[in-house]
Amino acid sequence: MASSAFFLAAMLLAALAAAGCLFEIAAIVALTRFFAGSPARCANQAGVTLLKPLYGIEPRLEANLASFLDQDYAGPVQMVCGVGDLSDAARESAERLRRARPDRDIVVAAGSDRTFANRKIANLANMLPAARHEILLLSDSDMAVSPDYLRTAVGALAEPGVGAVTCAYRGRGDAGLWSVLSAGGISYVALPGVILGYVTGMARPCMGSTIGLTRETLQAIGGFERFADVLADDYAIGEAVAETDRRVVIAPVLLTHGCIEASFGALWRQKVRWSATIRGVAAWRHLGSIVTYPLPLALLAAAILPAVGLPFVLASLAIRFVLAAAVDRHARQASAPYPLIPVIECVEFLAFAASFAARKIDWRGSRLTIRGDGRIAV
Questions:
Q1: Which of the ends of the chain has fewer CB neighbours closer than 10 A, N or C?
Q2: What domains sit in the chain, N to C, each tagged with a CATH number?
């Protein structure tokens, strides 16, 4: 009986690994298809307000912010940088940028009396009154963009039937080895899944890298206050826009996420938080994403029955390297050394497994409780 159970377990793991290999092949095709399209361009060069919620000092923070100002875009651009706490060190970084760019419309909003469980949403709600333009582009502070970002994102938002625009992103390690592992996980594991889900219509991503929408649309979905205690606020905003019968699209421009994890503990907390967040909003889809980790599955199968698992170990490694090369070709640079890719995938898989037991997460220094409905409590 025991030998039969081991055989069945090895066969199940091998089957999942095989499905994962097919998934990765499909992702390679999806990446090529997605980035082959010509980006839409905004003809009227409408005014845009960039909303940048900040929290604490990050490596390259000022350079990341400056990349949003150095754009090939003829319309008026305003940047509103917000910090929830007057003593936040990020405030001085934003002020330095404002002083260094006197020709740019930069506003620094500091302090908030809002008591939302989601402090980022509280920050955004506090920043909104300073916004001067109809088009709003929200983006996380750890994002960097290329000069065609604004015209591509605004062009996508102007397409008929579009209610919000978001952007895919690759990882960049900004704080040593652990941040490089984090960056590799974003580029070589998460990004292909996002693009495949979007191209096939199986997923409707909306990511904190960019959420572009009009002020009218924001009001129609209930404003930022609607998401005051939502953990996955980016996902929830996208779902709320879709409820208005307008589409959420990914603009064909790839952003860069600066990863700042300086220790294994920081890396682990961040990966579990991301995975638990996805579990909280789409539990069954999250469970199905087990096929995005063919190498760990094949290694487990090989540990039980080497003859069954080893061929899939070799196949999954080969296909993952081809997938990584496809990502790097579109990104025009590598996110991590290729010898680290097997380690990256295994760490991502362990965080995926741990997410099913996670009930509390660490977010920007706060311990938050995840409720069953995907909302959070302090």
A1: N
A2: 2-34+281-365 (no CATH), 40-278 (3.90.550.10)
Spatial distance between the Cα atoms of 79 and 107, rounded to a whole number of angstroms: 6
Q: Which tokens in the block code for residue 127?
A: 């920043």
What is the token pair recorded at 173? Answer: 């390690």
For the chain, list the strands marked E by DSSP: 48-54, 77-83, 105-110, 135-138, 143-144, 162-173, 211-214, 247-259, 360-363, 366-370, 376-377
Per-residue pLDDT for 132 more than 70?
yes
Across the strands, what pairs with 48?
A: 77, 135
**Predicted confidence band at 86 (pLDDT cuts at 50, 70, 90)?**
confident
pLDDT band, very low/low/confident/very high, at 377 (cuts 50, 70, 90): very low
d(CA 296, CA 318): 14
| Stated pTM of the model | 0.89
Torsions phi, psi for 202 (to 5 deg): -80, -10
